[in-house]
Structure formats: structure tokens, C-alpha cells
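Private note to self, pasted from the team thread so I don't lose it. C-alpha cells:
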């Protein structure tokens, strides 16, 4: 019986230990943005701490002692979980100052409000869904998910995941007097799922305005930020497995560093998965027809040195050993620029020669090689990105089994985008590139979708 008591206590110790802290990106400029915060605790989180019934061969004073010990442990955990919101707020205030992210402020003096919900994770453990809101207009400027298991020290890990999300945006642009732009999704934009993304990594790129005098890629940053939220909440990736590059942080060197250094150093577990998402302009090489993505600092006149070749991107991802890479490109492939007549919101400057995906890489692109892309009528997104997001969120689940395969996503996106584009009197047909013999139905992207709150 003494061994039984020891085993029960040991099980509780296992729940209370472990964890790997994430690495916060550095910020060297003084904090300017004043941030108020409020985190609420979902009642379901307290229910997760209810003691489990333990069957015993017989009731003895020792088994009663074990039950009492478990009940006390559960009560203590419920009390701790009930205080998670206020404890996280305290931890974030300290973290904002220590990492120069922002200045803690009361609600009536804040530039932005950081709000969130602490709830059980669909995969077990705890998660924090957060959003950064500009109070004057109610505009969501960023959102994300922090997730961890129940263990001693989990508060520091949740805090650092939220801080990493704040450091991933130009937080200083939201200080008093600065214009506010809607660049992020709402708190509940992405549905939860049971997808295990612990061995997955993502590079998410969105470029809306360029350093050179190029047309604006309407809603590109909103596409990227919302996809980054889906990557965490719906595809199950930890926050520090996602690198988000938007605006002037999405230069050619930034993207190449992420693809050619960060991914090879981290995406090393056999059977892992890599996501690369790009929303913005593309461009064709006028001599070869090869396709290039256009980073923030690119110039279509010098694509070979200042653009990112699609074939080079595919090749770099294909060299990641043991990884299945999924590329999603919301850039059109028709070419154009100042010599094309384009509908409002259309993204010009894209390739005319399709790029073949090598082994280990599949690519879903927004349009055919002679087509243009457009914006959604329903939301502040590119039309293609909007259908990708809806599909991952469950609309593509054709057989209603709670899972979304690449085949289901592709079919849903192709049908929806083509139909909506025809309403604008143009053709847009998303295309899937995959190695010979690859079955899109075999690649399950999302598992165990949960109903939206």
C-alpha cells in the first residue's frame, strides 16, 4: 500500500515538472506603446483539475489517505488555475518592461489593450488565446495562441510565447498618435483542433507595401497574420515554431535566412512538416519566364539578385531531410505591372512558367500561369487566402470526419475561388503542384477540428 501511495504522488510530480522555455527575439529600442491587459479564465479549465476516480481492490485507511491526498492536490490546482489570468497579467507586466516590448498602463491610458482567454488545450494542457486591440476603433492589430502542458513554471513559458507574438509585429507603431491599421485576425478567427504540430515549423510572409514604387498588394499582411494564427491554433504548432515576416521585416535576406538557416537548424525530426506561406507580389523573369516572389526590398528589374526564385525556394525546402513541406502562395502568375489593365485590388507582377515541386514538397498556388488574383468580397483578405483559411477551419471537410486533407482543401479552394472570380468577370483557378505519384488525400493537414466558440 505504501508503494501505491508513492505511485500516486509520483504521478502528480510528473504533471508538475518539465517544459522547455522559448527563445525571445531581441528588442533594443526603448518601449513606447502603452499596453493594458486583461485575461479571463475559462470555467472548463477548472474542471480539468477535478480528481480522477481511482479504483482500489479494497477500501482501507491507506486508500482513504490516497483519495484525500488527491482531493487536496486537485483543490490546490483549481485554486492555482483560477488565478492564472491575474498571474499571467503580472508576469506579462514584468516581461513587457524587461524585454522592452511595451509599457504597462491602466485601461484608460492605453494605446492598445491585450486581452485573452485561458482555457484547456484540445490536445491536453493549457492554452492562451490572445489579441491586441486598438481601443478607439476596436481594431484587432495582432492575435495569437500560447500553449503548454500543466507543469511547474508553465506561467513563464506562456508569458514568453505571448511576448514573442508581440515582438513579431512592429509594436512601436501602435504608440500614441500613430495611425492604426487592421492587420490582424479576431480572437476566435481560428478554430481549435487536435492536430499535433510539435514536429512542424512554419515561415509566414506577407508584404503589402514595398520599398520600391510597386502597386500595393492589398490585404497581404492580413493574410499572413491570420494564417500565422491558424498555424498555431488549428495546425497545432508551438508559438516559437512559427516565424512571421511582414512589411519591412520581409526583405530578401530575412526570407532566405528563415528558409536556408532557421528551418535546416530546427526542422530535423524525421516525419516532420514545414509550412511556407507567402502573400504579396510575384514577378516573371522576362527572359526565361521563371517565377519569382517579390520581397519587401525587391526590384522587378533585378529579379535574379533581388527576388526569390520559386524554384530555388522549392529546392531549399526539398533539401530538408525527412520533412514534408507544404507551400501556399497567394501571388498571381500572369505578369503585368504598368502594362496590364487590372481590376482594383489585383496583384500584378507574377510568373508565367509553372515551377515543378520536388520530392517532399507540395505547393498550392493562387492562380494559373496566365491568370490574375483578386481580393475577397467577404473579408479583408486575398480571395485565395480567404478560401484557404475557411478550408483549414473546417469548410473543406467534405466527408465531415473532423479532418481536412490536402485533397479536400485543394478541391474546396479551387471551386470557391473560381466561382467568386467569375463574379468579377475574370478567371482564377488555384493550382496544386506535387511530385509524381503523390496522393493529396494521403496528407492530413488538420485533425480533430473543434466547433468554433
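Design output:
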Amino acid at each position: 500500500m505504501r508503494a501505491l501511495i508513492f505511485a500516486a504522488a509520483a504521478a502528480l510530480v510528473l504533471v508538475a515538472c518539465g517544459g522547455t522555455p522559448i527563445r525571445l527575439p531581441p528588442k533594443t529600442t526603448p518601449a513606447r506603446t502603452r499596453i493594458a491587459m486583461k485575461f479571463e479564465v475559462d470555467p472548463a479549465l477548472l474542471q480539468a483539475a477535478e480528481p480522477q476516480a481511482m479504483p482500489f481492490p479494497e477500501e482501507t485507511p491507506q486508500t482513504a489517505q490516497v483519495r484525500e491526498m488527491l482531493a487536496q492536490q486537485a483543490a490546490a490546482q483549481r485554486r492555482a488555475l483560477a488565478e492564472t489570468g491575474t498571474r499571467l497579467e503580472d508576469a506579462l507586466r514584468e516581461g513587457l518592461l524587461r524585454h522592452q516590448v511595451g509599457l504597462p498602463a491602466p485601461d484608460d491610458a492605453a494605446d492598445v489593450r491585450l486581452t485573452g482567454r485561458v482555457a484547456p488545450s484540445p490536445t491536453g494542457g493549457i492554452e492562451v488565446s490572445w489579441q491586441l486591440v486598438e481601443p478607439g476603433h476596436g481594431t484587432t492589430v495582432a492575435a495569437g495562441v500560447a500553449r503548454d502542458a500543466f507543469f511547474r513554471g508553465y506561467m513563464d513559458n506562456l508569458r514568453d510565447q505571448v511576448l514573442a507574438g508581440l515582438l513579431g509585429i512592429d509594436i512601436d507603431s501602435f504608440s500614441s498618435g500613430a495611425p492604426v491599421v487592421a492587420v490582424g485576425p479576431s480572437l476566435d478567427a481560428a478554430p481549435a483542433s487536435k492536430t499535433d504540430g510539435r514536429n512542424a515549423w512554419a515561415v509566414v510572409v506577407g508584404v503589402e507595401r514595398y520599398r520600391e514604387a510597386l502597386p500595393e498588394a492589398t490585404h497581404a499582411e492580413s493574410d499572413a497574420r491570420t494564417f500565422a494564427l491558424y498555424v498555431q491554433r488549428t495546425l497545432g504548432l508551438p508559438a516559437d515554431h512559427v516565424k512571421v515576416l511582414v512589411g519591412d521585416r520581409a526583405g530578401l535576406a530575412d526570407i532566405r535566412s528563415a528558409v536556408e538557416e532557421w528551418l535546416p537548424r530546427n526542422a530535423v525530426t524525421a516525419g516532420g512538416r514545414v509550412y511556407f506561406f507567402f502573400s504579396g507580389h510575384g514577378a516573371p523573369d522576362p527572359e526565361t519566364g521563371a517565377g519569382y516572389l517579390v520581397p519587401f526590398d525587391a526590384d522587378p528589374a533585378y529579379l535574379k539578385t533581388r527576388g526569390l526564385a520559386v524554384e530555388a525556394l522549392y529546392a531549399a525546402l526539398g533539401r530538408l531531410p525527412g520533412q514534408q513541406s507544404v507551400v501556399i502562395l497567394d501571388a498571381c502568375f500572369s505578369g503585368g505591372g504598368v502594362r496590364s489593365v487590372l481590376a482594383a485590388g489585383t496583384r500584378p507582377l507574377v510568373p508565367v512558367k509553372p515551377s515543378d515541386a520536388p520530392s517532399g514538397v507540395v505547393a498550392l498556388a493562387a492562380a494559373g500561369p496566365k491568370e490574375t488574383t483578386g481580393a475577397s468580397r467577404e473579408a479583408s483578405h486575398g480571395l485565395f487566402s480567404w478560401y484557404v483559411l475557411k478550408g483549414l477551419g473546417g469548410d473543406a471537410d467534405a466527408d465531415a470526419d473532423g479532418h481536412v486533407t490536402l485533397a479536400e482543401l485543394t478541391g474546396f479552394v479551387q471551386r470557391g475561388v473560381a466561382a467568386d472570380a467569375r463574379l468579377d468577370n475574370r478567371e482564377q483557378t488555384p493550382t496544386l503542384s506535387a511530385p509524381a505519384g503523390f496522393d493529396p488525400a494521403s496528407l492530413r493537414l488538420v485533425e480533430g477540428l473543434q466547433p468554433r466558440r
